[in-house]
């Protein structure tokens, strides 16, 4: 187990270097000179362009640029934006907000999704089952920005139950509604995954054995059935956290949340390679760590899986 | 195996703890000391440059710079005429080449030091000096000695650190010598590139950038990047009108739509532009009933010709294309009347009588066909535009209008970003018409002519050149008064419109909204919010 974790952690290093380089390369390959449009319809003074290119090592060959960036990164220096703001500051402002938003969304989809899945999976083919199937189909079909504007207009502007836009602090309470919006699509997937998984395992040998042993219903469902049905759901939830963090641009834009989705989007538009790489590197780490955790959880959930 | 499972159980809470502690670090905006009722919030976007007046040229940073700095002159809310602010007087000599500027003696910077003639001269020299790489350096190119501090050749060593045309006479007086007469020079001095800088800037630029010190009505308090910039009233502000509000916070919004929702729900106090989605069907007038305003802006949209491409050499083709665009219908149907059909290349606000400035700027299908026949052109035309702005709709509409009227093909040709579009413009590689827009730096007709259309001018991307126009612009520059200069510039514009080097399409209107908490919200034609008159309701 320990060796398995160590090996997985060591694997992070090449993945880390590879992804940072790829991202750096992609931003570098964006069409257009980042300073061509910076002065509106007039060309920027050559002196300005020269100073900026020098400052951001843009005249060096790509590999040397990347090398210099990586060297600074290893010393904990994320670099600067074109406006002279430290990327480290931007990240430390935006990440906590995004993590809060993603955790709230994850909680919503886990709670509502799993409960709906269990209820329908156990009973099957009743009114409840149809209700969940139809409503999840509905949720999957509606794009997030529609749900977002709908929630904002109805609950924020018309009913006044929530603040339509989130303040700079972005406290847990304020992020409930955006978190729900963000979770809406995945919630439907979780419900369907859980339902299918439970319906399948209901007829599995170990469940029949448990029932035959005379175990009470709640133990059969709670311990035997649920735990073994949880694997696909946990896999989905684990990777979804990463997707929720990086893919919340639309929700962030609607509710004015200062998160990393918007940060990456704006940096790409400005072709600020340092910012994009810095933010995405951390996202990659989140993905990798979540994947590792999910893999470890398999061993907890299913006694047949071992890592030695 | 059991040990393995226990390790996994430990891993989860540890990861959760890591995530949760990261969340704790986020509560850094909780400045509860300021009374929330005295704070007025104003929309902005994240500044794209350090907040140095000579190094900022986009609106996000411009809003902040215009609030923490006061220039020699300011522009009136209604007609954008210039009024002395820090300047006591600006006297021109007979030729209009040497200007003696006297400043009022009671102005102070936010750190308590005096605003002196030296503060202006030092600031201007700093911005112009090439190695400092300031964005607005070219605003000083008319001053004598500019080529010594900013040589044209890239990489050449500047011969001097200061411009010979700037001379401090005493504490409150300095003299500006231009390399050629320029009658309207005093009108230009309200642009932020001409702001003074305190000594603290030159002592430690990095510290100054972290906490900018200006001489304007509000001083810098704190800033959280991508979130907000807090400003507070400067108690020693020497301007005639004192600010009415105590605290002003520029709030950074992730999207214009979010800002709009915030102002509708009274969460944001001032929003100086309205998203296109809310302009549709005039929804904003209902959403923000009784708290809207609208001003005519000094911003014009044009379609430019690459005159270096022989296809567009024929003047009759250019005139025909201009006459084929139905501006009225486009303004009404696409922008719901929130843009004005252009009557000339200078926005109507700046002209007493815009009619008669441009013979070929109306929609006249008959004449358009006739001129096209005269030109003998039978091929297709295209319009290039950048697809990262809100331009697709109107460019396509203009193309349709051209195609329907002239019965030739017209292809809208999008490029990915504004950066790409500018790269093509700088390389002179357009083969079609292309979308352009020009926002005035200072409220003068000259600003819509000289930089764009004089031979070899910095933004003359189409390589338009007409010696007679150049001579007329020279004559206007040398005029003895602003009025006389204006007349001559108008004459020059009429000459340019005959040549039609670019097609004027729209003048922009600025829409703004505010919360019920504030009143006296005014924007000037440069879309600058008047922070002095702004008050709590």
From TrEMBL, chain A:
**Organism's domain of life?**
Bacteria
Family matches, as Pfam families = BPD_transp_1, BPD_transp_1_N
- Regions crossing the membrane: 12-30, 97-119, 131-155, 276-301
Record-linked Gene3D superfamilies: MetI-like (1.10.3720.10)
**Protein name from the UniProt record:** Oligopeptide transport system permease protein
Topology in the lipid bilayer is annotated as: Multi-pass membrane protein
Q: Where is the ABC transmembrane type-1 domain?
A: 95-298
The family note in this entry says: Belongs to the binding-protein-dependent transport system permease family.
Give the InterPro entries listed for this entry: BPD_transp_1_N, MetI-like, MetI-like_sf
What is the protein's species of origin?
A: Actinoalloteichus caeruleus DSM 43889
Q: Is Iron among this UniProt entry's keywords?
A: no
Main location per the UniProt record: membrane
Lineage, opening ranks: Bacteria, Bacillati, Actinomycetota, Actinomycetes, Pseudonocardiales
Entry keyword set: Cell membrane, Membrane, Transmembrane, Transmembrane helix, Transport
Q: Where in the cell is it found?
A: Cell membrane
Q: Which SUPFAM superfamilies match?
A: MetI-like (SSF161098)
Automatic annotation (TrEMBL), chain B:
Does the keyword section mention Signal? yes
Give the signal peptide, or none: 1-22
Record keywords = Signal
Ranges for domain Solute-binding protein family:
84-459
Q: What is this protein called?
A: Oligopeptide transport system substrate-binding protein
């Amino acid at each position: 187990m320990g060796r398995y974790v160590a090996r997985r952690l060591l694997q992070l290093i090449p993945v880390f270097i590879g992804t940072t380089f790829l991202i750096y390369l992609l931003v570098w390959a964006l069409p257009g000179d980042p300073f061509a449009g910076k002065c509106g319809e007039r060309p920027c003074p050559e002196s300005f362009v020269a100073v900026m290119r020098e400052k951001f090592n843009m005249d060096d060959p790509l590999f040397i640029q990347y090398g210099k960036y990586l060297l600074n990164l290893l010393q904990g220096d994320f670099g600067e934006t074109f406006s002279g703001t430290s990327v480290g500051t931007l990240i430390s402002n935006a990440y906590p907000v995004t993590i809060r938003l993603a955790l709230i969304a994850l909680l919503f989809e886990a709670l509502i999704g799993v409960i709906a899945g269990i209820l329908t999976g156990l009973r099957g083919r009743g009114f409840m089952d149809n209700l969940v199937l139809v409503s999840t189909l509905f949720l999957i079909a509606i794009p997030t920005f529609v749900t977002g504007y709908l929630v904002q207009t109805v609950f924020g502007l018309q009913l006044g139950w929530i603040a339509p836009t989130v303040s700079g602090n972005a406290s847990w309470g304020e992020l409930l509604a955006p978190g729900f919006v963000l979770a809406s699509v995945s919630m439907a997937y979780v419900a369907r995954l859980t339902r299918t998984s439970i319906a399948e395992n209901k007829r599995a040998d170990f469940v029949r054995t448990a029932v035959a042993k005379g175990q009470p219903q709640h133990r059969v469902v709670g311990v035997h059935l649920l735990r073994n049905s949880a694997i696909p759901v946990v896999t989905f939830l684990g990777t979804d956290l990463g997707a929720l963090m990086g893919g919340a641009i639309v929700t962030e834009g609607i509710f004015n949340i200062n998160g990393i989705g918007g940060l990456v989007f704006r940096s790409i538009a400005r072709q600020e390679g340092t910012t994009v790489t810095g933010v995405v590197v951390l996202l990659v780490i989140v993905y990798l760590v979540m994947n590792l955790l999910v893999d470890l959880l398999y061993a907890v959930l299913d006694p047949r899986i071992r890592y030695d | 195996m059991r040990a393995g499972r226990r390790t996994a159980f430990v891993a989860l809470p540890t990861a959760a703890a890591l995530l949760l502690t990261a969340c704790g670090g986020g509560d850094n905006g909780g400045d509860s000391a300021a009374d929330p009722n005295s704070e007025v919030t104003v929309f902005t976007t994240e500044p794209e440059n350090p907040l140095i007046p000579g190094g900022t040229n986009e609106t996000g940073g411009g809003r902040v710079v215009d609030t923490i700095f006061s220039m020699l002159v300011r522009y009136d809310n209604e007609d954008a005429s210039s009024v002395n602010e820090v300047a006591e007087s600006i006297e021109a000599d007979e030729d209009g080449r040497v200007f003696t500027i006297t400043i009022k003696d009671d102005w102070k910077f936010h750190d308590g030091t005096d605003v002196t003639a030296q503060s202006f001269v030092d600031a201007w020299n700093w911005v112009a000096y090439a190695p400092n790489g300031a964005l607005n350096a070219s605003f000083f190119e008319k001053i004598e000695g500019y080529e010594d501090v900013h040589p044209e050749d890239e990489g050449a060593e500047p011969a001097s650190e200061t411009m010979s045309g700037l001379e401090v006479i005493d504490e409150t007086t300095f003299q500006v010598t231009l390399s050629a007469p320029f009658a309207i020079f005093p009108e230009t001095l309200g642009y932020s590139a001409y702001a003074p800088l305190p000594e603290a800037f030159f002592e430690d630029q990095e510290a100054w950038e972290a906490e900018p010190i200006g001489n304007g009505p509000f001083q810098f308090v704190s800033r959280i990047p991508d979130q907000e910039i807090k400003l507070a009233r400067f108690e020693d502000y020497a301007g005639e009108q004192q600010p009415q509000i105590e605290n002003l916070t520029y709030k950074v919004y992730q999207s214009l739509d979010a800002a709009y929702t915030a102002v509708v729900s009274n969460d944001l106090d001032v929003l100086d532009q309205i998203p296109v989605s809310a302009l549709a069907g005039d929804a904003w007038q209902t959403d923000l009933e009784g708290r809207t305003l609208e001003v005519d802006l000094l911003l014009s949209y044009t379609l430019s010709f690459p005159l270096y491409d022989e296809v567009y050499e024929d003047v009759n083709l250019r005139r025909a294309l201009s006459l084929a665009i139905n501006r009225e219908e486009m303004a009404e149907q696409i922008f719901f009347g929130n843009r004005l059909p252009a009557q000339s290349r200078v926005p109507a606000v700046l002209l007493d009588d815009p009619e008669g400035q441009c013979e070929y700027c109306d929609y006249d299908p008959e004449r358009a066909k006739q001129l096209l026949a005269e030109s003998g052109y039978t091929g297709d035309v295209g319009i290039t535009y950048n697809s990262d702005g809100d331009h697709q709709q109107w460019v396509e509409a203009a193309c349709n209008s051209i195609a329907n009227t002239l019965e030739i093909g017209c292809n809208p040709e999008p490029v990915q970003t504004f950066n790409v579009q500018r790269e093509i413009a700088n390389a002179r590689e357009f083969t079609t018409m292309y979308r352009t827009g020009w926002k005035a730096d200072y409220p003068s007709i000259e600003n819509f002519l000289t930089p764009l259309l004089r031979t070899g001018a910095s933004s003359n991307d189409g390589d338009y050149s007409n010696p007679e126009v150049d001579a007329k612009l020279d004559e206007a520059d040398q005029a003895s008064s602003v009025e006389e200069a204006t007349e001559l510039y108008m004459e020059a514009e009429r000459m340019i419109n005959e040549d039609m080097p670019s097609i004027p399409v729209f003048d922009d209107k600025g829409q703004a909204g505010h919360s019920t908490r504030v009143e006296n919200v005014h924007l000037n034609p440069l879309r600058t919010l008047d922070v002095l008159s702004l008050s709590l309701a």
